[in-house]
Design a protein that fits this description.
alpha+beta, two-stranded antiparallel sheet, elongated
Length: 123
């Protein structure tokens, strides 16, 4: 059984998770992000989510200002395949950026760069 839904983790539509502003470590924050209230998101790894949370806070924002969602690409006909898709990061004011996700992606680093260059505005 996956992690249970905690009060600080908010789900919307069963697929979108909000990073809730917790006073705990980024690793624990990553544990709080769940899909469908039952299992961890499969496209976004816990370490990527922790990196995203750290980047948001290091840029002076609050994690509660952001929504992170994943969208998986349909699997190819091959039996063995890499999970790919996109990660959408949206600030509450509506500023949105979509990143390629999956094995070998660098979306947390791209998010960090975008936060520092003002793509999501200023804290």
């Amino acid at each position: 059984m996956g992690p249970t839904l905690q009060p600080d983790a908010i789900l919307h539509g069963g697929k979108v998770a909000f990073i809730a502003g917790l006073d705990n470590s980024p690793a624990l924050k990553a544990e709080m992000i769940v899909a469908n209230g039952k299992t961890p998101m499969s496209l976004i790894s816990k370490s990527e989510l922790a990196d995203a949370s750290t980047a948001i806070e290091a840029a002076g924002f609050k994690t509660t200002e952001f929504q992170i969602s994943e969208s998986r690409d349909p699997p190819p006909a091959a039996v063995v395949h890499t999970i790919t898709g996109t990660v959408t990061v949206t600030r509450k004011d509506g500023k949105t950026k979509i990143y390629a996700a999956g094995h070998g992606s660098k979306w947390p680093a791209e998010l960090d760069r975008n936060l520092k260059t003002g793509v999501f505005g200023r804290p």
